[in-house]
Structure formats: structure tokens, C-alpha cells
Amino acid sequence: MDHAPAPLRLSEQLCEKIEEQIVTGALRPGARLDEQELAAEFGVSRTPIREALIQLASAGLVDIRPRRGAVVAEIEPHRLCEMFDVMAELEAMCARLAARRITEDEIASLRAAHQACEAARDADNPDAYYWLNELFHRQIYMASHNGFLAEQAIGLHRRLRPYRRLQLRVRNRMKVSYSEHQSIVDAIVAGEGDLAADRIRGHIQVQGERFTDLVASVRQLSAVGA
Asked: What is the distance between the alpha carbons of residues 198 and 82, in angstroms, rounded to a whole number?
């Protein structure tokens, strides 16, 4: 039986393309998303663009405002830190359950995702590391074997993409991140649920110097391009 995923609808393809522009900072917080301009850019009608913007709004990446239309969502630093606090707890739950429920095949997949991050770290490529880092975290969500929890973690992770990505550009953050990943993998494979939860919580939380880095990232993402 063929289990290949169904092709993405046009609106879903456009959603991914616009999301990529938001994540990379090409579309900055507060930027207006004109349906007609986007339709011309991608060579499509306005209908799938409108559908894509609605999807992005449901993910929290876009605000649709009366009379102003769609704009890239803006988040205040304190609100962003609250979101990271929730993200840390969701991932801690995933890691704790994964330490109890992960299968041998899933352990192999988790280790492979971790090793892929190593190659990006060694190449000093934060953009490649970011996407591989996302796959690493998703392996943990899936290994929790709790579908609802995984859905919530994926949704909030997606909402925080622009900021998690920018954080990796901070000096030495990739090296530290990879080292933290190793400690998380070790705890999950050892079946140490509480330890895995503590380690991934610390990996995600933004406190002290990391709070300062996060605020700087928000300002960078919000700055008007030269």
C-alpha cells in the first residue's frame, strides 16, 4: 500500500513560501501583506493567497486586521518570554514521556537527527542547523506517543520559529545547543524522564543573558531594512 503523503494544495504551498519569508526576516514584524502584490509575486490568483494568509493567521504568524488587512505578527519581548516558558514545559512533557515510551527505531532516528545537527554546527551554518534542530525536536515530540501533546508542541514551535532561528546566530549558541542536545539524548535513551525534562526545559527557557539575546533578536527582526 502506498503511504506517500498527499501533494500540498496550492494554498498550503503558498503558506510555506510566505512563512519562509517571515522566518528568514525577509518579511518583518508589522509588514503589510498585500494580497495583490503576493499574487503577482507568486503568479497566482488572490484566492489561494487569501487562504494561505488565513492559515498563517491561525498559526499566529500573521494578524488580519479590519481595514488594514494582513500584517506580519509582532510580539512584545515579555509576551515572547511567556511563550518560551510554555514551550519549555511542553517540551519537558514530551521528553519525560519519550524517556518512557521511545522505541529502538525512534532512538536511531533521534540519534541520526542529532548527528545531522553536528554537521551543520561544524560547517558554522546557523540556517541549516535551525531546520535540522527542528527535526531533532520533532523526533522527541513523536517519541512521546501522545498525539495531542505533539500537536500543541509543533504549533507553538512553529509560532516561535523566527525567534528560535535568530537565537542561533548568537555567538557560540550552536555549539552550546548541540551540547545540550547530547545531554537530552543521553537522558532519554537512559530512560531518565525527570532528567530529560529538566535538561530540555533548560535548553528552551530564556533567562539571564539569553533574555538579553532574545530581546536583541526581536529588535533585529523588527528593524527596518536598510
From this structure: 18
- What is the rounded CA–CA span in Å between residue 196 and residue 99? 7
- CA pair distance 10, 15, nearest whole angstrom: 8
Quick one: cell of 97? 514521556
Confirm if 184 and 196 have CB atoms less than 8 A apart: yes
How many Cβ atoms sit within 10 Å of the Cβ of residue 165?
Answer: 21
Instruction: Classify the phi-psi angles of 30: left when phi > 0, otherwise alpha if psi is within -120 to 50, otherwise beta.
Output: left
Is there a contact between 114 and 136 (Cβ–Cβ < 8 Å)? yes
Q: In what order do the strands lie in the sheet with 62-65?
A: 32-33, 69-72, 62-65
Task: pLDDT tens for the chain, 226 residues: list them.
Answer: 333 444 568 988 898 889 878 877 788 888 899 999 999 999 999 999 999 999 899 878 899 988 778 999 877 778 888 888 999 999 999 999 999 999 999 999 999 999 999 999 999 888 889 889 999 999 999 999 999 999 999 989 988 887 777 777 777 888 999 999 999 999 999 999 999 999 999 999 876 566 666 666 666 655 544 3
pTM for this model (two decimals): 0.76
Backbone angles phi, psi at 63, to 5 degrees: -105, 130
Closest to 217 in 3D by CA, of 170, 174, 161: 170
